[in-house]
Amino acid sequence: MAIIGEITEKHRLSSPECKQQMMPVQDALDILHGKWKLLILMSLSTGPMRFKEIQRQVEGITAKMLSKELKDLEINELVQRTVYDTIPVAVEYTRTPYGNSLKKVIDELHAWGVQHRKRVMRRSN
């Protein structure tokens, strides 16, 4: 969180400085936006999976949306699609080493989500 502290210390950055500081976060959000991509990456943390296996793990996602999201993740080199020459054709998806580089981010987001859920539950009781 050094960047946030840096921004706070400077109080107000000039517009170009601010934009430059925010650009990497915007780039990451552009790739990971939506409610499904991180959940798909989480489901693939245990190893290669077939389409239907992912769909069962990511509750609520439609086949059409899963297909779109997997294509986006593949384009951004976070997921690899492997087609096996079998009858019927088998397709597996796995996280790439680049996709695995998000592990710390996903773990931190998970930990924050657990704390947030506890906080919300305390307020509602």
UniProtKB/TrEMBL annotation:
Top-level taxon in the UniProt lineage: Bacteria
Keywords, alphabetical: DNA-binding, Transcription, Transcription regulation
The keyword Membrane is assigned to this record: no
Keyword Cell cycle: no
Residue ranges of domain HTH hxlR-type in the record: 18-121
InterPro entries per record: HTH_HxlR (IPR002577), WH-like_DNA-bd_sf (IPR036388), WH_DNA-bd_sf (IPR036390)
Any one Pfam family match given in the protein's UniProt record, by short name: HxlR
One term of GO molecular function: DNA binding
Name of this protein: Transcriptional regulator
UniProt organism field: Paraflavitalea soli
Lineage: Bacteria, Pseudomonadati, Bacteroidota, Chitinophagia, Chitinophagales
